[in-house]
Specification:
The chain is α/β, with parallel strands linked by helices. The chain has a domain of 155 residues: P-loop containing nucleotide triphosphate hydrolases (Rossmann fold, 3-Layer(aba) Sandwich), CATH 3.40.50.300. The protein is built from ten helices and eight strands. The strands form two sheets. Strands 2-3-1-4-8 form a five-stranded parallel β-sheet, sandwiched between helices. Strands 6-5-7 form a three-stranded antiparallel β-sheet. A hairpin with a 5-residue loop joins strand 5 and strand 6. The structure holds adenosine-5'-diphosphate (ADP) and adenosine monophosphate (AMP).
Amino acid sequence: MDAVQMATSPWTWQIAPAPLVRGGPMRVVLMGPPGAGKGTQAKTVADMVGVAHVASGDLFRESVKRGDELGRRFKEYMDRGVLVPDDLTVQVVMERLARDDSRDSFILDGFPRSLGQAEALDDVLGADGRAIDLVINLTVPEETLLARLAGRWLCRACHTSYHTLYSPPIVEGVCDRCGGELYQRIDDREDTARHRLEIYREETTPAVDYYRDRGILCEVPGDRPRDVVTRTLTEAIRQRPA
Ligand code: ADP
Ligand code: AMP
């Protein structure tokens, strides 16, 4: 059975995740505008193949939840829908990537988001002979993005993403995965969401172009049913450059 057929059955994922992607290190970046489905897909694929899912937005929200000084600074940027400055972002993500579970393999979600971050990531990985294998850019039309953000609910504990219409939880307000409480993000309100899309176009597009120029970018349409997107992603990961 090939990877695409296997990915159609969640039951099959649980008993035989390994053959879905080939072995060896897997250093993948998942890019795309807010609402493209990065978190949804990164979590699914990371679970399937047993690699770390590292989401810069989740790292910032955890820091906000701790209520420390750094968390207060992150919250101020996030609530306005602007990017956290590169130096702080790179520091937080690199500290996370230094942990044992993400030395060889990881899926990065929402990082890098600027050309400076992409270059910093290359420098840190390159210092000990590592490199990003594949960058996937999820593309979704703007009106669809806004509809997704407007209906998004997230788990406070495990960050799983739900949608009131497209993927509601079994019990309203409760995470199917861990039983955590669901909430809506302040920055998903329409005016802030539109602003975040502008910031994406201005600041993140140069990072997408950077990876395209290096020949490691794969564009995947994200406005398909979730399981179809997952299959396309796992196939792209399986075929990533050696
Ligand atoms: P991102 O991490 O890129 O900001 P999310 O993964 O949180 O995006 O997804 C944004 C919203 O869209 C969530 O409410 C999620 O449930 C929903 N969603 C994700 N993928 C799909 C899809 N393929 N079809 C419909 N809705 C989706
Ligand atoms: P996300 O959860 O990916 O939608 O990110 C939520 C918010 O966290 C963004 O709007 C930014 O304020 C901040 N953020 C997340 N990732 C980054 C990043 N790589 N660079 C700068 N800011 C980020």
